[in-house]
């Protein structure tokens, strides 16, 4: 498809496990963003890539969160030693560059038991 | 106080009504203003994208930006049950940052 693709759509993990969430942006989009969305809230910024460079990671809530985009296309958000408060929907978005509108994937719904 | 304030609703209207959704913000430096629609268990879908002040119309949707009042609106004409969703406002461009700041969303219910 032509849109942003995220996998898995749903992930259940036990507290303390590591998880990896994948984002496939729209082809040709240089910028990629990760957001966390709690129930009843708007998306909260986590981190931003321009091509393979991570330009802003100020929204990552702790050093357990790590993101990468090694070849400037697919990105992975990794959460180590998951905690219950990590339960949320993780959204990925991409755009063509600064000032351009973002296009979102349908998110990964993460539940930590 | 959050940078972007949005009433969570729910806002319930009959089919065919004109809907008005609003956001206020505190950072006068925002330059880009967006409205997204989000259905349950789906990602946000871009509806409107405007730069600076003024109005923009697209079909049944009209976006208004009043930078002097730090207030933005989305109007939906002839609302349909399929418009039932959460509507998120977002804005960016302050201090050279193009990372959007989102409101919490307003839940809209259009009943037949």
Structural commentary:
The complex is a heterodimer of chains A (113) and B (112). In chain A, 0% of the residues lie in helices and 49% in strands. Chain A contains no helices and eleven strands. The radius of gyration of chain A is 13 Å and the shape is globular. Chain B has 112 residues and is mainly β. Chain B is built from no helices and eleven strands. The interface between A and B is medium-sized, with 23 and 24 residues.
SSE topology sketch:
The complex is a heterodimer of chains A (113) and B (112).
Chain A: E1 5-7, E2 10-13, E3 19-24, E4 31-37, E5 44-50, E6 53-56, E7 65-68, E8 75-79, E9 88-95, E10 103-104, E11 108-112
Chain B: E1 4-5, E2 11-14, E3 19-25, E4 32-38, E5 45-51, E6 54-58, E7 61-66, E8 71-76, E9 85-92, E10 101-102, E11 106-111
Parallel strand pairs in B: 2-11
Antiparallel strand pairs in B: 1-3, 3-8, 4-5, 4-9, 6-7, 7-8, 9-10, 9-11
Helix content of chain A: under 10%
Structural class of chain B: mainly beta
Strand content of chain B: over 45%
- Helix content percent band of chain B: under 10%
If you average the pLDDT of chain A, what whole number results?
Answer: 95
Number of E-type strands of chain B: 11
**How much strand of chain A?**
over 45%
Q: State the separation between the terminal residues of chain B, measured CA to CA.
A: 36 Å
Poorly predicted spans of chain A: none
Count of distinct strands of chain A: 11
């Amino acid at each position: 498809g032509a849109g942003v693709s995220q996998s898995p759509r749903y992930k259940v993990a036990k507290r303390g496990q590591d998880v990896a969430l994948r984002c496939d942006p729209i082809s040709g989009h240089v910028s990629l963003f990760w957001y966390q969305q709690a129930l009843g809230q708007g998306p909260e910024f986590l981190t931003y890539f321009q091509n393979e460079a991570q330009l802003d990671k100020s929204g990552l809530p702790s050093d357990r969160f790590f993101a990468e985009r090694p070849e400037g296309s697919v990105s992975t958000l990794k959460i180590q030693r998951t905690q219950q408060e990590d339960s949320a929907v993780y959204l990925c978005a991409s755009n063509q560059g600064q000032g351009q509108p973002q296009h979102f994937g349908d998110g990964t719904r993460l539940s930590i038991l | 106080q959050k940078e972007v304030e949005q009433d969570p609703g729910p806002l319930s209207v009959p089919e065919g009504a004109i809907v008005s959704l609003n956001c206020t913000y505190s950072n006068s430096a925002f330059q880009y203003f967006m409205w997204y629609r989000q259905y349950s268990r789906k990602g946000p879908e871009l509806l409107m994208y405007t730069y600076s002040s003024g109005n923009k119309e697209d079909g049944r949707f009209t976006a208004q930006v009043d930078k002097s009042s730090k207030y933005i609106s989305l109007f939906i004409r002839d609302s349909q049950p399929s418009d039932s969703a959460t509507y998120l406002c977002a804005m960016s461009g302050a201090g050279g940052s193009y990372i959007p700041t989102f409101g919490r969303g307003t839940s809209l219910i259009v009943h037949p």
